[in-house]
Each structure stands twice: as structure tokens, then as C-alpha cells.
Design goal:
Elements lengths: L1 H22 L3 H14 L4 H13 L3 H19 L5 H12 L2
Helix pairs in contact: 1-2, 2-3, 3-4, 3-5, 4-5
């Protein structure tokens, strides 16, 4: 029980840190934080979405599309389903941008 509680707190802190970095315009630090968040819990689609958005905003379209592929693989492997509609919609929007 204690281990799961600590893990949950760690995830919460990573998420807050990523949001703060993002709000301050520190994209590289936000990206690193979202990546750490995904490594800790590969099913947090919100983190994938923010990471895709950050990469897209930085003009790193291929990196954003790779994030979606990683999300799709994680969700498929763990839950045997596809990413949610928001994640897929964001993917399609990035895919269609040039």
C-alpha cells in the first residue's frame, strides 16, 4: 500500500512540474517531465497529449507523431484498445498539418 501511495504522489508531482514548466514556456523541461511521467505510468493519455502538443508547437511534427505511436502501443498492449478520441483527434490534426 505504501509503495502505491508514494508512486501516486510521484506521478502527481511530475504532472504538476510539467504543467508549471509548460506555463512558464520552458518547453524542453516540460517535455522531459512529461516523458518521465509516461515512463512512470504509460497509460496517462493526458501526458501523451501534452507531449504531442508541445512537439507540434515546436515544429517537431515527426516527434509528435512518434508520441502517438508510443501511446497507441502502450494502450493496445495494456488495455487491448485504441487511444481515446481526444488523443486520436489530436494525432489527426497534427498529421494533417504541414
Amino acid at each position: 500500500m505504501k509503495r502505491e501511495e508514494l508512486r501516486s504522489k510521484y506521478v502527481g508531482l511530475l504532472n504538476k512540474m510539467a504543467e508549471l514548466y509548460e506555463a512558464r514556456g520552458a518547453s524542453r523541461k516540460a517535455i522531459a517531465s512529461y516523458k518521465a511521467l509516461i515512463e512512470t505510468d504509460p497509460l496517462l493519455e493526458g501526458a501523451y497529449q501534452r507531449l504531442m502538443t508541445l512537439y507540434s508547437n515546436l515544429g517537431k511534427r515527426s516527434a509528435a507523431l512518434k508520441v502517438y505511436d508510443a501511446c497507441r502501443k502502450a494502450v493496445e498492449a495494456e488495455l487491448e484498445t485504441e487511444p481515446d478520441k481526444v488523443t486520436t483527434s489530436l494525432y489527426k490534426k497534427i498529421l494533417e498539418s504541414s
